[in-house]
Write a structure and sequence with these properties.
By secondary structure, the chain is α/β, with parallel strands linked by helices. It has a single domain (3-208), classed as Alpha-Beta Barrel (TIM Barrel). The protein is 18% helix and 27% strand. It contains 4 helices and 9 strands, in the order βββαβαββββαβα. It has helices at residues 67-77, 101-109, 181-194, 204-208; strands at residues 3-12, 22-28, 62-64, 87-91, 113-118, 130-133, 145-153, 167-175, 198-200. The protein has a 9-stranded mixed sheet with strand order 3-1-2-4-5-6-7-8-9. Helix 1 (67-77) crosses helix 2 (101-109). The chain is globular. It starts with a strand and ends with a helix.
Length: 211
Amino acid sequence: MSYSVKEIFYSIQGEGFYTGRPAVFCRFSGCNLWSGKASDREEAICKFCDTDFVGCDGEGGGQYATAERLVEKIEKIRPNKKVLKPFVVLTGGEPLLQVDETILSLLHQKGWEVAVETNGTIVPPEGIDWLCVSPKPGAELIARSGQELKLIFPQPGAEPEIFENLDFQYFFLQPLDSLELEKNTKMALEHVLSHPNWRLSLQTHKILGIK
């Protein structure tokens, strides 16, 4: 199996449970909820995605013929070989269209801790250390357990109470980044304060102006 990757880069995790943690990000191309083309935005299941996952032309991107070659590239991006448990985030697009047990096994052999960020519409393979699921209305939620549920808020048809009894360790509300970001942030904060089983997630990488 070959793998289509938009970009691979080193930064910090900007949102959710691991906010502030250094990580290598491997962004896979493609998604099952939107083509990534502006012309298809109105017909997309997810209409607010702010990520470029189209093609393989980003930093470190390309077509990787084997899982071994992809993991070799991730290893090269790793800045400090002395870190005993380096952290890699497999994201997209929708990474589970491509991520398989072979990739996970090879990363673990190299000592990586592996996180996956998914929309939850695909059964995840065994071996993921940290599964973050971000549900979208209009898409069937298949992955109903994991470490982290991160809900973009507000989303009509994806109210927090729909998900709060699922089998996740942590529940995050993340304000929808739109023209009404300030309003959405205030609403998310108010909901978290009145429903303390939820936590607030902010996109700190955007606040800091980094990737």
